[in-house]
Structure formats: C-alpha cells, structure tokens
Specification:
By secondary structure, the chain is α+β, with helices and mostly antiparallel strands. It folds into two domains: 3-63 and 192-355, 3-Layer(aba) Sandwich (Beta-lactamase), CATH 3.40.710; 66-186, 3-Layer(aba) Sandwich (Beta-lactamase). It is built from eleven helices and 14 strands. The chain has helices at 3-19, 65-77, 97-102, 105-109, 122-128, 135-139, 159-173, 177-189, 248-259, 266-272, 338-355, and strands at residues 25-31, 34-41, 43-45, 50-51, 58-59, 212-213, 228-229, 245-246, 277-282, 285-289, 294-298, 302-311, 314-322, 326-332. It has an eight-stranded antiparallel sheet, with helices on both faces. A two-stranded antiparallel sheet has the order 3-4. Helix 1 (3-19) runs antiparallel to helix 11, helix 2 (65-77) packs parallel to helix 7 (159-173) and helix 2 (65-77) packs across helix 8.
C-alpha cells in the first residue's frame, strides 16, 4: 500500500470513529522521520467546550515506562549500575528482605520480579491518591507486601516494579526522579510539553485534556452511566510507572531521539528494544517485553517497538515500526480501546503488504 493510500484510509477511519464519538484525541503518523498525518477531534474539556488541538497534552498512562527504561539504561552506560544488580545494592533499607536480596533490575524492567500491580481495592487507593506525589509515596503502598511468585519465574505486568525502578534511579543519580527524566530525556529529546503535572479540580491546565470515562473506576469495570470526567479517580501526579503528560509531537521527537541514538548509544538502544521475555503469541504476532519497551514481531516480516497506556479516561499508544520506519502516536482522553483501536487500524495498513 502506498503512503498516500495508507494516510487516506486512516484519515477516513478516524473521521468515522469521531463521528460516532468513538474517538477523542490527537494522532500523528510519520514515515522515515517526516510527519505525514495529523488529526484531532473531540474536547479536551467538555464542560468548557475546549476542543482538542495538536498540541494538547494527554495523560500517557503506562507509555511513561519507556522513559523509566531509558533512564535505567543511561545509568548503566554511565557505569552507575548493572542490569543484574539486586535491589538491595541501591536500596539497602528496603523492608522486604526477599526483594532486597533476590530481585534484580532485570526482573523489574521485564515484569518478572513477582511484585504486584496497583491495589485492586480501588476505595483504598482513592483514600491515598491525594498523598501520592513522589516516588517514595508510591513505593510506600507495597514495600511491606510479599512477592506474588519467585523472581524470574514468569511474566506478570507490574506497575510496582517500575515504581521501585524510580526509587533506584533516585538513589543512583542522587536526583529526584522527575528532575532526572526531565534533564536527561525530555530536554535532550526536545520535549518541552512533557511533564508530570499535578492535576486536580483546582489545578486545571487549559492545555491539558481531562479524561472522560465510561467505567466505574480505574480498572475498567463496566458502567451504564453516561461518561463523566475522571478527576475523582485519576492520580494527582504521575510516577515512574505512568501517568505523565505529553503531546503527539513531543513523543515524535522522543522517537527520533531514540532512533538517532541521542539518548542511548546504538548498542544500548538495540539492547533495550530487544526481546527479554516472551508474553504471548496470537496468530502471526508474538509479543515480547524488553527493557521498558513492548516489542511485537509480525511473523518475522515486521517489528514494532513502543508501549501502550490505559486508565480511566486515558488511552495512549506509541508505536515505532522498522523497515520502513513508521511512527504512529495516538493519544485519547477516552477509555481504552479508543486509542488502541486506531493504532490497530494503522498497524493493519502498515503491515498489509508484507503480511500478504
């Protein structure tokens, strides 16, 4: 499929989805480092009738895990830590002795540590959400809990593991996590509109999209109630596991900085985007996890690296395809699968020729 036909079909699909209110957000598609499609629809703030724009900032959900993975890899390149080091080397006062002595940075990066994934007791989490404004605040939610399984035994997605990576970054770099990623990733990549904003009813930023959810909580429990904003359930501030804010162009600049090895050396870029653990195979696609990156192999014909993110009123995808290089960024302030659906359509169009 030619580039022109791909863009035409994807734009038509976006218009159809927007017309039936299945999409609200922004989309950017680039080929070989050049933007070829911009698209926006919906409202950043329905109550104020503020429309989404190409520079509107959206919550990224777990897309932020990429930044944490890159930060760890940078510290490895500086000789400040190693992937096979144990947690206790950097957090000697961590209260769980098993985590301290047996869990490695590799385990944390690949979701094989045995740590959990946010409290499923949403009422309990809501009780703490106002106080969750630092990495230590998030780590405090699980630091005394036992592991769910032996480190390295299996893959199980873990936000807690990435919070612990944030704590290790702070201990190693001797710098606040938020300042470290701003100085060493956002600034280096040219991402002026990316940050960890404190978002609540008082601190509403006119250029930040409010999320709108059709679910009862953050864990996608179905609800028949009409959509409502997510200000009562959204985390006040993001963390090393997710919840920062960015724009499609900032994420595009990040993808370029990564591919041009301005954030990591060529060798380290290859390492963090190399499969470390297999997650599953579905038809012709095999999903892996690297060091902060989700990696999809399309029957040996195509490779996609990136990450997705989802929360109540939050859905995002950053996808980078290799040979030819396409970058697809979809940010939405609706529940999943809003952005995933659009990214999936782009995936079919991009891989169509090689997969036939």
């Amino acid at each position: 499929m030619t580039k022109g036909n791909l863009i035409k079909k994807l734009r038509l699909y976006l218009e159809e989805q927007s017309k039936i209110d299945n999409f609200s957000g922004t989309v950017l598609v680039a080929k070989d480092g050049q933007p070829v499609l911009e698209y926006t629809s919906g409202f950043a703030n329905k109550e104020s009738h503020l429309v989404n724009k190409i520079n509107t900032k959206f919550s990224l959900g777990s897309v932020n895990k990429i930044f944490t993975g890159v930060a760890i890899a940078q510290l490895v390149e500086k000789g400040l830590l190693k992937f096979d080091d144990i947690v206790g080397k950097y957090l000697p006062d961590y209260p769980n002795p098993t985590v301290k002595k047996q869990v490695t940075i590799h385990h944390l990066l690949t979701h094989t540590s045995g740590l959990g994934h946010y409290p499923k007791d949403w009422d309990k989490l809501k009780a703490f959400r106002e106080s969750l404004r630092s990495i230590s605040d998030f780590v405090g939610l699980f630091k005394d809990k036992p592991l769910l399984f032996r480190p390295g035994a299996k893959y199980q997605y873990s936000a807690d593991g990435y919070e612990l990576l944030g704590a290790i970054i702070e201990a190693t770099a001797r710098q606040n996590y938020y300042d470290y990623v701003a100085d060493n990733i956002f600034h280096k990549a040219g991402m002026p509109n990316t940050d960890f904003y404190e978002i609540d009813r008082v601190n509403l930023n006119p250029n930040v999209a409010i999320g709108y959810k059709k679910t009862r909580d953050s864990f996608f429990s179905p609800s028949k109630a009409p959509p409502e904003n997510n200000l009562a359930v959204n985390l006040i501030k993001g963390s090393a596991a997710g919840g920062g804010y960015s724009t499609v162009y900032d994420l595009f600049h990040f993808s370029q900085a990564l591919l041009e090895h301005r954030l990591l050396s060529h060798e380290m870029t290859c390492l963090v985007t190399t499969p470390q653990v297999k997650i599953e195979t579905v038809e012709t696609q095999t999903l892996y996890y690297g060091y902060g990156f989700q990696i999809v192999d399309f029957a040996g014909q195509y490779t996609r690296i990136g990450h997705g993110g989802a929360f109540a009123g939050v859905n995002a995808r950053l996808d980078i395809y290799k040979e030819p290089v396409y970058t697809v960024i979809v940010l939405s302030n609706y529940d999943r699968p809003t952005a995933f659906r659009v990214a999936g359509k782009a995936e079919k169009l991009i891989t169509m020729n090689k997969m036939l």
